[in-house]
């Protein structure tokens, strides 16, 4: 308990949590309104938790296009619409997704190459195994083969209807995604997104042989998913927020919330800084976006959300195994495999490395043996594609990433969605991004909630009414933002190797 003096400060909005959700919310509020915004983060750098540990895959729906329930697929599609409308013009040229003409008068979102771009031009390619592949041919249940055919057809039809040139994303000068009903009605496919690749064919032949099967046929689908630079995105967002007078403070420890005696709503928060000094911050609204620390924060506010924290297992390989990014879809979870080619940038310069993943995850308290088993399975899968000699010639690192998600109808269900909800009893907004890729939608939906809660007037600015501003930040602010945001965690793992 502090016995000395406590500094008191006033803000309109205080955001608790400095991951991608908190950063994006603060940036959009600062850019679009005159509100005074402050972000508090418990670690010594912003983006040091799940936001900086995920593999760096910007999802536009490809990985979830085959699932019967289209919710996650549509979340990804809509997030891309929000990205182009809210960020591409402001962050030109860094936010390098643009509407590009695919056919005369028909525009679709595509990545424009740029040295400091958020996104890589080379897309994630999806492997769809055929009847002769080991994951399909070895199935003992005819129903699995039938279900896989239906899933493959959904992948091809949904991706083609959204990104293949059937839908014009340019409507009245804005980016507009198709609606779910239109997508489901356009089931015919022409194969416009199929893209044979000799390198991937060689990887698949090796994979089949490792499983004692004859080389089989695979469809290779070009998606709109791309590798991204999470640290670059967060640094630019922080710099923009700072240029619009938002404040960021790291290495803080929350102490307690103060309640208004008349309304019973949160009116203030006391915290300690890295030096151990106490601060008392008052605000009109508190936004909680803390990821894996949600349980602790919820207990302070007596809130019981339906969320859980899971572990995701990652393997980093340096140098990169291939310059292709690809993901294998399969009727069997054990055959799922993702390879992401990353060109990471940070204080040590630019490097190229591989991120390996699959569908494996475990509970927050999962034993070490489960982590080892998940890591070994990833390395074995990589060996099937690239060969043991290639794998053993690389520097390999494994780590766990904690992600906060909603609890599905069953423990095995993972239905990715974002959550922006006001809690009337506490007077706070609670936010979970679901995926890094949803940050444009999370920021927009939170902005709308803030506008309702604080009863903002039109003069305070509305996203739909304002002309796009341009990202113009001086070098001093850029340097401060770069110092605040952590490098991509795999990049930090590899720095000692690079410096040898």
What are its keywords?
500 residues; 32% helix; 27% strand; eight-stranded mixed β-sheet; alpha+beta; globular
Task: Sum this structure up briefly.
It is built from 14 helices and 22 strands. It is of the alpha+beta class and 500 residues long.
3D shape: globular
Outline the low-pLDDT stretches: 410-414
Mean pLDDT: 89
Query: Largest sheet, if any?
Result: 8 strands, mixed
Through-space gap between termini: 46 Å
Total helix count? 14
> What radius of gyration results from the CA coordinates?
23 Å
Number of strands: 22
Give the proportion of residues in helices. 25-40%
* Derived structural class: alpha+beta
Beta-strand percent range: 25-35%
Task: Report what the structure shows.
It is built from 14 helices and 22 strands. About 1% of the residues have low confidence. Strands 1, 2, 11, 12, 13, 14, 21 and 22 form an 8-stranded mixed beta sheet that branches. Strands 6, 9, 15, 16, 17, 18, 19 and 20 form an 8-stranded mixed beta sheet that branches. A two-stranded antiparallel sheet has the order 3-10. It is α+β, with helices and mostly antiparallel strands. Helix 7 packs across helix 10 and helix 8 packs across helix 13. It is 32% helix and 27% strand.
SSE blueprint:
Blueprint: E1 7-16, H1 20-32, E2 37-40, H2 50-53, E3 57-58, H3 71-88, E4 97-103, E5 106-111, E6 124-129, H4 134-137, H5 142-163, E7 170-171, E8 174-175, H6 180-185, H7 198-210, E9 218-222, E10 226-227, H8 230-243, E11 247-249, E12 253-259, E13 266-272, E14 278-288, H9 294-300, E15 307-318, E16 325-328, E17 337-346, E18 349-357, E19 361-363, H10 368-386, H11 388-392, E20 395-406, E21 419-423, E22 428-432, H12 439-454, H13 475-484, H14 489-498
Parallel strand pairs: 1-2, 1-14, 2-11, 6-16, 14-22
Antiparallel strand pairs: 3-10, 4-5, 6-9, 7-8, 12-13, 13-14, 15-18, 15-19, 15-20, 16-17, 17-18, 21-22
């Amino acid at each position: 308990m502090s016995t000395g003096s406590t500094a008191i400060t006033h803000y309109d909005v205080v955001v608790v949590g400095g991951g991608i959700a908190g950063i994006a919310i603060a940036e959009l509020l600062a850019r679009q309104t005159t509100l005074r915004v402050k972000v508090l983060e418990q670690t010594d750098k912003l983006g040091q938790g799940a936001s900086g540990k995920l593999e760096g895959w910007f999802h536009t729906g490809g990985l979830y296009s085959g699932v019967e329930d289209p919710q996650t697929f549509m979340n990804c599609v809509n997030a891309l619409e929000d990205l182009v409308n809210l960020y591409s013009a402001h962050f030109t040229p860094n936010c390098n997704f643009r509407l590009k003409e695919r056919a005369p008068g028909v525009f679709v979102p595509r990545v424009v190459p740029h040295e400091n771009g958020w996104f890589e031009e080379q897309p994630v390619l999806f492997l769809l195994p055929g009847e002769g592949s080991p994951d399909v041919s070895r199935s003992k249940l005819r129903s699995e083969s039938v279900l896989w055919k239906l899933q493959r057809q959904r992948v091809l039809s949904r991706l083609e209807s959204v990104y293949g040139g059937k839908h014009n994303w340019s409507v009245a000068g804005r980016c507009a995604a198709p609606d779910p009903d239109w997508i489901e009605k356009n089931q015919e496919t022409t194969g416009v997104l199929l893209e044979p690749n000799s390198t991937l064919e060689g990887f698949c032949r090796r994979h089949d042989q490792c499983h004692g099967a004859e080389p089989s046929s695979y469809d290779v689908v070009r998606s709109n998913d791309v590798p991204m630079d999470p640290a670059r995105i967060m640094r630019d967002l922080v710099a923009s927020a700072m240029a619009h007078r938002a404040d960021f403070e790291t290495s803080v420890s929350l102490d307690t919330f103060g309640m208004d005696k008349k309304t019973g709503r949160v009116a203030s928060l006391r915290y300690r800084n890295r030096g151990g000094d106490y601060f008392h911050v008052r605000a009109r609204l508190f936004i909680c976006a803390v990821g894996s620390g949600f349980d602790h924060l919820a207990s302070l506010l007596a809130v019981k959300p339906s969320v859980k924290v899971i572990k995701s297992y990652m393997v980093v390989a340096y140098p990169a195994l291939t310059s292709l990014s690809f993901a294998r879809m399969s009727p069997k979870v054990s055959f799922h495999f993702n390879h992401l080619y990353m060109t990471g940038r940070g204080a040590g310069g630019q490097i190229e490395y591989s991120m390996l993943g699959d569908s494996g995850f475990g509970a927050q308290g999962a034993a070490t043996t489960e982590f080892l088993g998940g890591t070994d399975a990833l390395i074995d899968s990589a060996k099937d594609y690239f060969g043991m000699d290639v794998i053993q010639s690389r520097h390999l690192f494994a780590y766990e990433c904690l992600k906060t998600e909603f609890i599905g109808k069953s423990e095995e269900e993972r239905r990715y969605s974002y959550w922006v909800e006001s809690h009337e009893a506490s007077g706070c907004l609670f936010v979970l991004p679901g995926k890094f890729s949803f940050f444009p939608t999370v920021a927009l939906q939170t902005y709308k909630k803030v506008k309702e809660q604080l009863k903002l007037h039109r003069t305070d600015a509305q996203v739909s009414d304002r002309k796009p501003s341009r990202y113009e930040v001086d070098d001093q602010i850029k340097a401060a933002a770069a110092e605040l945001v952590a490098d991509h965690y795999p990049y930090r793992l590899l720095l000692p190797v690079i410096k040898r």
